[in-house]
Amino acid sequence: MPRGRGAPAGAETVGGLVARAAAFLRSRGVGEAAANAEFIMADVLGTGRCEVRLDGGRPLGSARRLRFRRLVRDRARRRPLAYVLGHQDFMGFRMEVGPAVLTPRPETEELVGEARRRLAAMDRRPRRRPASPSRRRGLAGGAPRRVLEIGTGSGCIAVALAKLAAAWKVTAFDISARALAVAARNARRHGVAGRVRLVKGDLFRLWGGRGRVRRPGRGFDLVISNPPYVPSRRIPRLAAEVRCEPRLALDGGEDGLDAVRAIVAGAPASLAAGGLLMMEIGHDQGAAVKSLLEGGGFGSVEVLKDMQGFDRIAVGKLA
Ligand SMILES: C[S@@+](CC[C@H](N)C(=O)[O-])C[C@H]1O[C@@H](n2cnc3c(N)ncnc32)[C@H](O)[C@@H]1O
Predict the structure, then answer these.
(1) Engineering a disulfide at 82: which of 88, 140, 213, 260 sits with its beta carbon 3.0 to 4.6 angstroms away?
(2) What's the structural domain count of the chain?
């Protein structure tokens, strides 16, 4: 972003800096440039975006000006806003985010919201063995639910689920040690490290015979995943920001369904009877994933749409 030397009066105010940053970002092809400039200023001020608008006439001290310019220049290189700021809000929880992990998406918040509703509904159904008072800490007084997440990345799904119900226990896998380090920091930051077990593992080998996630007697109530689901050939055409994200987090193989197929094939070994498999999927993968689930022994298969009306969440119930 060009310096303010010779800039008109008012240019070094919050409003002036935001307006110039927005024009600069727009010139570099950044989408929603004004919103990006406001989010960056909000981070610099330690306030919300609303206050940035209300405080437009406020002058900005030199240290903050320097930081604002540095972040704007970084964003102008088309680095994702969450990487530039180092964090992203997810389900109301602030998650550390960086180049080792996918930026948590609003669609994934919908997956977590749906999972939470369904686990809470399970809690409301009577169990064969009544929960003892010490175990009545689930959403609606049921026994603790056990969740297995495949491909945890920043840990956003695992941490949010653990935060949303005080007794749910989550085991979360990822193949990336760097991602798991971020997830561990997020679990600690939100005080759920004791209920989120992070494990390094390859989803294509988890169920490969050694049964490391098989739980004889009592399986998981929910297997949840936002797997890599972008078909390989589409990756070069993704926005510059998305191409900054780890290829491991995006690339789902030729038709985008490599990881989905492995999860559908393996999850029954980890699920309790009546347990749910829930996955985020690509907008054009609904029919294919529905038939994979039906062919894989799942019943009550549904494909739910996201807020934009696209197929996004696949759900199957183990009979
Ligand atoms: C789409 S990202 C999802 C991250 C996070 N759960 C979220 O929703 O934002 C997919 C994650 O799967 C992980 N992953 C990719 N291939 C994997 C594999 N073979 N085994 C385990 N995890 C894998 C990636 O490292 C990445 O963190």
Answers:
(1) 88
(2) 2
